[in-house]
Design a protein that fits this description.
Elements lengths: L2 H18 L3 H13 L8 H6 L7 H5 L3 H10 L1 E3 L2 E4 L8 H12 L4
Antiparallel strand pairs: 1-2
The structure holds heme C (HEC).
Length: about 110
């Protein structure tokens, strides 16, 4: 292996390890808060337009299981045949999605 190739592999490995640590708050802000709101209430311009629900409401929290939340985040959501939330399978790892689901649960009052 050429020296430059080795260096590229090492850089990629370190980058991968760092991105695993990207914290759940940062992921929520970056990918989800535009619709669901930093506070999970969905009261953003995009959230209102898309129909995001209030995740501080216990009834809303009960309306989906952790498995459904995981699947929805990974595969996206369609309403009346139109995508209202895009899939995140390529942007987030399974572990990151699990952390985000736990984060959503923490909005419940
Ligand atoms: C373009 C706006 C938009 C973005 C961005 C978005 N969502 Fe959603 N999401 C929605 C809408 C609309 C719904 C359906 C109504 C609701 O449950 O709030 C929804 C529903 C959900 C549900 C409930 C699924 C169910 O089965 O009822 C979860 C969980 C969820 N989103 C998680 C996330 C996570 C995690 C992110 C970021 C990685 C995210 N969303 C980003 C619009 C969005």
């Amino acid at each position: 292996m050429k020296h430059t190739t080795k260096l590229a592999v090492i850089t990629a490995l370190i980058g991968g390890a760092l991105s695993l640590q990207a914290d759940v708050e940062a992921n929520w802000k970056k990918h989800c808060a535009s619709c669901h709101g930093a506070d999970g209430k969905g009261q953003t311009t995009m959230g209102k337009k898309a129909g995001a629900k209030d995740y501080t409401d216990a009834k809303v929290q009960e309306s989906f299981t952790d498995e459904q939340a995981f699947k929805a985040t990974k595969e996206g959501i369609e309403k009346d045949g139109k995508p209202v939330m895009k899939p995140y399978a390529e942007k987030l790892t399974d572990d990151e999605i699990k952390e985000l689901v736990a984060h959503i649960r923490s909005f419940k009052k």
